[in-house]
Amino acid sequence: MAKIAFIGLGHMGGGMAPNLAKAGHEVRAFDLSEAALSAAEQNGCVRAGSTEDAVRDADVVVTMLPAAQHVLGVYRDQVLGMAPTSALLIDCSTIDVASARTVEEEAAAQGYTMVDAPVSGGIAAAASGNLTFMVGGSDEAFERAKPFIEPMAKAVIHAGGAGAGQAAKICNNMILGVTMAATCEAFVLAQKLGLDPQVFFDISSKASGQSWSMTTYCPVPGVGPETPADHDYEGGFAAGLMLKDLKLAMDAAEQAGAYTPMGGEAEELYQRFVNLGGGSKDFSGIIKMIDDSWKA
Ligand code: NAD
Predict the structure, then answer these.
(1) CA of 31 to the centre of ligand 1 (A)
(2) Would the pTM of this model clear 0.90, i.e. be above it?
């Protein structure tokens, strides 16, 4: 069994790290938050005093940090040169493709193997070990990383070379942001046209309007399977994080010269929702902004 340093024990990492411990690994966990550290300790991880401490003789380093600046800072100042060069580095945070490639190049220059491995699935999937991982890196790096990712995953997919995991993640979430906005608009229009939301769900979830946003994550309370809509849009995937991912997608589109008008519209909608105070609400809560007279 391996010594795994796990850095970043927030909503996601706090669920993921214990799954590695349950799989029999020695997980040395660190987070700037004392509460997050205590929770990880109670869930089978070993508390480390710092990132440097956690990585010192690690076989594998896993990071689950908020954004690119944290990832670049942690790797440059506390991992590269501190962990043995034999350690495999796995960054699961969602960050921009260019930063992922930069940190992987800097790691390779110092002799490390690194993959970007962002995830799809929320806090519940993190806790239950049911995340989908999209992995960027060489074939050899992917094969090395896979067995360490598997205890946290329902699927582990090799997306391509360095940064390809991040590319897949932001393209996937651009679809999600756009389909959720379209699904919310359709429910509002359907209601104004006199359709019962349940009847519209029954039809559209079996017709060509079907998508994950409709069938699995319906934004209307009391319709379809239980979702954050049934809990006043609490829990789930925060609108602020959806906005972050849409901004990453729009920046990447600009750099790559891709035309993404629907992604741009979705970014504007989520920006407005966050400005109105909805940043911590589930992202399906934009239905209330699209029509503030919306009633369940
Ligand atoms: P979070 O803010 O809950 O957790 C991040 C943790 O990192 C915090 O506990 C923070 O204290 C810690 N941290 C920050 N800087 C640190 C440092 N220098 N050293 C050690 N610890 C540090 O965020 P989260 O919701 O767990 O998300 C983590 C990543 O996963 C993000 O990139 C996010 O976009 C992505 N993601 C989140 C979700 C979700 O539903 N929450 C889903 C998929 C992907």
Answers:
(1) 10
(2) yes
